[in-house]
Amino acid sequence: MSLLFEKAVAAFDADSASLAARGDVGSSDAAFDVPTTTVTEFAAAHAELAHPDRDEWTRIPLHEPDSAALTGEYVVYSEGLTDEGMFVYYDADADSRKRISREAFEESSLCAQIRFWHSDFVPEERPAYYDSPIQSPVEPSRTVDGDRFFGDLRSHVAAERERAREERERRARDATPTEWCDSGGDGIPTLKRTGTNPDGEYEFAVAGDCIPEGEWSIRDTFGVYEGNEVLLHPPNAETAPGSFPLRATVAEIRGRRLRLSVAWESVEDRASVGSFLAPKRHGYGAVLLLNPVPFDREREAIDDVESRSSLADALTGRRRLTFGSDRAATSSTHDVELNQEQQEAVEHALLADDVCCIHGPPGTGKTRTLVEIVRRAAQSGRSVLVCADSNQAVDNLVVGSSTESEADERSLHAYAQHGAEEFVLARRNYRRSSRSLVRDAYGTTRPEDADVVASTNGSAAALPPRFDLVVMDEATQATCTSACVPLSRGETLVLAGDHRQLPPYSASESPPESAGGLSIFEHVYAEGGVYEGVGVQLRTQYRMHRDVVHFPNRRFYGRTLRNGRDVSAVAGLDALRGFHVVGEERRAGNSYVNETEARLVTHLASEVVAEESNGVGPADIGVITPYSAQVDAIRDSLREHVSGGERITVDTVDSFQGSERDAVFLSLVRSNEAGRVGFMGRRPDGPRRLNVALTRAGKHCSVVANWNVFRGRDADHECTDLYDDFHSFLDDTGRLKRVEPEFIPV
After folding, report:
1. Are residues 503 and 618 in the same domain?
2. Mean of the pLDDT values across residues 16-34?
């Protein structure tokens, strides 16, 4: 059907409308081949169009002959009289109702007055009642070459695979297998070579002292599976050939034994390596180098999507997008408290035939909106796949902040089999969930028995291609390649995310050079997308104090956000503060530490915790920083100096996305004479990370930095204008304070 008809139904005044009265309704002057079956099916799904006199009658509103403006008249469609159904109008000449067949109706002048209810027909001008943010059908903003697009996706998978292998190998070569495993890496610390098979594969057995008593599974104990690539370390690195450690593939696992196939193409001194491997000896070790499964899944999904013309055409902008599904008409509103944009997002997602996007800036109720979409789709009898790139994001939709005793009303848990029982929910790969509630409540339900299945994008590869609707959250963190996995399992795709926040993770530090590295959300919806703007932006934010949201709204969202409620500041504090402090950064491995900023953040947090009357405790505070080494330094300092400091959440920007706290302290870390700010000064990552950090706060946000560095003119600093703007905003509004390191009382 069409969005226009949905709006027409809403505008149609059934109480005052009258049955169309005509004399001769013979053949229409214009030849309109209107698919009336689709129109009547969609109309029949709307309870508000039912005729009050007869249950089998459905009223179909008429529009003007040359426009979509409503006439205040309708024709009646009746099922059951014939296989094709009948149409009824008022014969003015005979002064009585008259029934005509579908065939006769399609040739009549009346049929021309329902043509705009089908997406094949588009009026020249929108009627006054049509206020949709999406103009259906949607023409593509640009078209991309299909062969090149899917070729780019495959190339991206191959490049990411190699980068992941190289990065893991670089780190694995610097540690012994025991050190690697002790630090949490997957691998087998001690192996004994036991033989060679006829295929030239080397047989090993796990040393008895490194596997727990009663355990026999190498897979479960060490996280190593058949098909994995490993790095084989020798018993004695000093006496081993220089090619060690060796790349190898796990050919077979049986109990505590495994066979390895050495990647001889990467070995220079093959003879000496072969001689070294020949004797049976103890002391080998293997660390996981690469699990090829995620990359293989993406490659297979890309092939599948490319082979399905409708999906391929939608991703490359080679077709018009239509909004004609009856999911909206065959379901009813559940969450009556949704605001206007949330309602529009639900409506458009349910009507979408191909793709629809929901742009959900921080605090705008994106999760609540998605839950309503899933509830209504399930009510309409559709099977739904709910997915995201990470287990954390999936579980946020499944259970949110639910506990064993109380369900979060913004989560699916509140409405699934353990709640309102509206649908049956299953969690694919539930063992990977960090939430016991997810594992206990949804681990026993088989996906094939569920109406709604929740899964990560990658794990969706194990599901059959049976889903009517795929709802993907955090779609701005899913590459086009990873999105192909769930997309290959469904018909219609609803993407939700915020392209002003973090992009997808990549093993490369450089911005993506092809479509493969872009998020699926950006590829479709963002500036330059194939269907730019094809969706609804949620515009009312409920999380942040007006002063906290002011700068992100102006800088990142073009002043499109409005405040939906009055959020009070932490008592005794301005909602937003900036601190300028010149500390000294210190390199810590691949990360950075700034102990001066760690001390200042500790002092600021201690002031908030000490004031019991403000209602903000340690668990309500978050500390965000770009660098993992600074995370460790601040955690240690808080535990030492702040009462309950161990309950304050401290994490990197990337890990904090999706979370929120009443009070947030941001430490930007970098402080050096050269003016280097690292990745926080690189586009597009730098601005997005700053946006994420600032918008985690509800009542209070403090930003600690050496502003001289972030406003500097280093050649690699691409975001000077951003930090200049933020600094000026803080300074001009009296929110910036200068702190001398020696006066910090921590």
Report:
1. no
2. 79
